[in-house]
Amino acid sequence: METLRRAARGGRFFPPAIFEGREYLVDENAEKLTRNNTFSPYRTVHPALLSRIKHGTPEKP
To answer: What pLDDT score was predicted for residue 54?
Structure first.
């Protein structure tokens, strides 16, 4: 059980586990991701878009 909790806390399920109350809810069809491939919503967004969101777009002359 502790191994599953660690995986849920570490974001190693896709779709990600949901923490509700004192326990994690994991979809029965969820896939366990590899150790180096954790789920992050930021990985689904293009890096250039993230850069523009963080730093803004340069002003046009």
So the answer is: 81
22 alpha-carbon distance from chain centroid? 20
Quick check: 12 and 33 in contact, CB under 8 A? yes
pLDDT reported for residue 39:
60
Q: Return the bridge partners of 31, or none.
A: 14
Q: How far apart are CA 56 and CA 61, in angstroms?
A: 15
- In this prediction the pTM is 0.52
Pick the CATH number of 2-55 from 2.60.40, 3.30.499, 1.10.1660, 3.30.460: 1.10.1660
> Length of the chain in residues, anyone?
61
